[in-house]
Amino acid sequence: MPEQPPYLRLADELRRRIAEHEWTPGDRLPSRAQIAQECGVGDNVVRRAQELLISQGVLEGRAGSGTYVAEPRKRVRVVRSSAREQPDGSPFRADMKAVGRQGDWESRTDAKVPAPAEIAARLGIAEGELCVRTAYEFLADGRPVQVSTSWEPYDLTAGTLVVLPEGGPHAGAGVVNRMAAIGIAVSHAVEQPEPRQATAEEASLLGIQKGSLVTHIRRTYYSDQGRPVETADIVVPAALCEIVYEIPISR
């Protein structure tokens, strides 16, 4: 079995010392130079070990101040279920209310955006066909907990009151309810979750360290005719949120 890299061994050592209360939440760690000298490693090994622990929520870096033991944070529960579509409201707001938080979001929509190859394949359209793209940042008590980018075929909603997901009389109603308003019945959604590291842009939006672990969910809604009507890339930080799938049972 290959030997564990030095930065992983050091991360385990720092984690052990925190678990044994040598440092407690809110404590400032010694400088990197001090840790490097004490543990007999280079500064780069200390940096990589600390970055790993920051990405896991064990430590937190404060610009111009140093590295601290992170305060325990209760993770936000994010429920994934088609059964939670609300006829008169947002599932996200309902989920946040259930855990005593205020849910909200910010969005930016661009109409007539050419579909990249991957998005076109997911929507069953030709690459370069026009789409409506909406970028979302979801907030719990004003703090970001999820980002997503949604794509809808422009020819599906063009000329209707729902062409802009966050504009008009059906603003914020969600894909299922908006499509129903123009006579399209959404029958199901398919989600493909996978873990990966946050990009620099995602980390900036979510207030996390670049490279932190996130769950990337590729979601596509389908009409009862089998046509994809919307696809989205949803990114949820693992240290801040737990994802729960709720599966309705037909009787």
UniProtKB/TrEMBL annotation:
Keyword Electron transport: no
Record-linked Pfam families: GntR, UTRA
Record key words, sorted: DNA-binding, Transcription, Transcription regulation
Chain intervals with Basic and acidic residues compositional bias: 94-110
Source taxon at top rank: Bacteria
Residue runs in coiled coils: none
Chain residue ranges for the region called Disordered: 80-110
SUPFAM superfamilies named in the record: Chorismate lyase-like (SSF64288), Winged helix' DNA-binding domain (SSF46785)
Domain HTH gntR-type: 4-72
Cited Gene3D superfamilies: Chorismate lyase-like (3.40.1410.10), Winged helix-like DNA-binding domain superfamily/Winged helix DNA-binding domain (1.10.10.10)
Record protein name field: GntR family transcriptional regulator
